[in-house]
Amino acid sequence: MTDVDRGTDEPFEHPAALAGPPIDWAGLRRLLVVRPDNLGDVLLAGPALAAMRAAAPDARIDLLASPGGAAAASLLPEVDDVVVARVSWQRIEPAPGVPDPGLADELAARRYDAAVVLTSFSQSPWPAGYVCQLAGIPVRAGTSKEFGGAGLTHWVPSPHDDLHQVDRALHVLDRLGVPPGKSALHAHVAPAASEAAERALREAGGDPGSPHAVLLPGASCPSRRYPPAGFRAAVRELTGAGLPVVVCGSGSERDLVHEVADGIPGAVALAGELDVPSLAALLGGAAVVIANNSGGMHLADAVGTPVVVLFAGTELVEQYRPRSVPARVLGVPTACTPCRQFTCRYQHECLDVAPAEIAHAALDLGVPGGLPGT
C-alpha cells in the first residue's frame, strides 16, 4: 500500500514511535532538559524551554549543558539549575577511562520525573536517553531517525533535516503534547551585567551612549571564521563612515581581536573582559552586530540587535539563521555546502565577501536613517 492509497502524504511510523502514554506535563515536579552543545545551541533551545515552562509551571527545570553552553543558562529565566558535563557523545577526541563517570549517579540523586533530549538533525538522543535510563528517570523523550530501544520512553520520529533548530525542538514538544508558543529567541540581561559592559567599554575608550557597532571575529572552528584582514577592512569602512566599532572576543581570541582593531581610529578592542551575560548586555546596547555563524550571532538575535552574519558553508543557512531581528546573511553558495568541516579544505570561497559589502549591510541595518551629523 502506498501513501496515496491510504490518503496521506505522511509515511508510516515505526510502531515504537510515540508509544509511551501521554505525559502529564502539569504534574511534573523535576524536569531535565539535555542540550550539551555550544552556547548558541542553548540559546536556540530558549523557545522550547519557554514552552516547557508554560506546560509545566510547577516544575523545577534543570539544564544538562557543556561548560560553554552552561554560560548561557543565566540568560534563560526558565532554567532553575545547570548540570555541567562534557559528555562522551558530544566529544570527537577519545576520552580516557570510563565514559561520563558519575553522571548517571548525579542525575539519579536529583530524582527527575522526566527528561527531554534536544538534538540537532545530525545528533542522536540515544546515548543521553541511556544515561537517563541508568539514572532511573521514568519519562525520557527525544527525536531520532532510527530506533534505539528503550533508552527513550517517548521517541518522536525526526522531522525534516532542513528545519530550523528552534522549530525542530518545538516540533518535538508539539508531538509530545506541548503547545509550541513563541519561536523568537530571548535572553534576560541582569542590571549588573549591563553595568559591567558599560564599565568595560568606557575603560577601553568607547562611548556606550553613542551609536556603535560590535564586531565578533571569532567562531568555534576555523572553517566558520571570516578572514581577519577582511574584518579589519570592514572596520575601516565603518569608522570612516562615522560609526565606531567595538571588536570583542574571549581571552583566547585576544590576538585575533587586536589584529582586527589595533591602530584604527574609532575602533576599540575588548578581549577577555566580559563574561557571557556582560557580552549579551554589550550586544544589546549596540546599533548593529557583525559576527560569523557563531554563538555571538545567536546572542545578538536573543537580545534584539540587528545582525550581519558571515555565514560559511559549513551548515545550511535555514537551519540556524537569525529569526528574531533584522538580519543580513552574507556568503557565497558553493558546491561543497554544507561541508560540516572544522577546517576548510579549499580557499574558503563560501566567505568570499567584500569588506565593503559587510560595512554597507551594517550601516543599512544599524543606522538606516543615517548617523547624526552626516
Radius of gyration: 22 Å
H/E topology pattern: EHHEHEHEHEEHHEHEHEHEHEHEH
Q: What do the pLDDT scores average to?
A: 92
Q: Termini distance?
A: 69 Å
What's the β-strand tally?
Answer: 12
Basic shape:
globular
Description of the structure:
The chain has helices at about 40-45, 45-55, 65-70, 105-110, 125-135, 165-175, 190-205, 230-240, 255-260, 275-285, 295-305, 315-320, 355-365, and strands at about 30-35, 60-65, 80-85, 115, 140-145, 155, 215, 245-250, 265-270, 290, 305-310, 325-330. With about 375 residues, the protein is α/β, with parallel strands linked by helices. A six-stranded parallel β-sheet has the order 3-2-1-4-5-6. α3 links the parallel β2 (about 60-65) and β3 (about 80-85). The chain is globular. The chain starts with about 30 loop residues before the first strand and ends in an 8-residue tail after the last helix. About 45% of the residues are buried.
